[in-house]
């Protein structure tokens, strides 16, 4: 039986397809992992943060930078929504942000390399934090990314 060019091409394609399925999948092409998703963040994390709330750039208003710190808990649903409540000290003025029964709700996005962002609205302003997932998802390191604060924090899975 004589093999035509069309049959040979089909046979090569079939063999290539079979061989390709035997090649192990690689999740990273370079130094960074590429297998993180929103599902990489689930459950409750306890956290603390500290930094400075930036004073107004308007000369007629107070331009003093105010020290801040906070401690609380946050919960991630694995789908892109998170909730939190904490107690914050803003220059000696203690405030409760949300409660266990009425937490502040926001959204988050995880990039394939384990970095991401969280966004929420509270106290009349939009807020954002950039983060990196570390220690196999047991820890989250984050920093302010909204121009309102210069702050950093660490969250540890409970």
Short overview:
With 158 residues, the protein is mainly β.
Order of helices and strands: HEEEEEEEEE
Number of domains: 1
Strand % is over 45%
Question: Architecture, CATH level 2?
Answer: Beta Barrel
Q: Which value, in Å, is the CA radius of gyration?
A: 24 Å
Helix content: 10-25%
Structural class: mainly beta
Q: What's the CATH H-level homologous superfamily?
A: Quinohemoprotein amine dehydrogenase alpha subunit, domain 2
Biggest beta sheet summary: 8 strands, antiparallel, barrel
Between the first and last Cα atoms, what is the distance in angstroms? 69 Å
Q: For the record, what CATH class applies?
A: Mainly Beta
Determine the CATH topology. Lipocalin
Question: Which overall shape is indicated by the principal axes computed on the Cα atoms?
Answer: globular
Describe the model.
With 158 residues, the chain is mainly beta. 11% of the residues lie in helices and 50% in strands. The protein contains one helix and nine strands; from the N terminus they run H-E-E-E-E-E-E-E-E-E. It has one helix spanning 5-22; strands spanning 42-53, 66-77, 81-90, 93-97, 104-110, 115-122, 125-134, 139-144, 149-157. Strands 1-2-3-5-6-7-8-9 form an eight-stranded antiparallel β-barrel. Strand 2 (66-77) and strand 3 form a beta hairpin. Mean pLDDT is 83; it is low at 8-29.
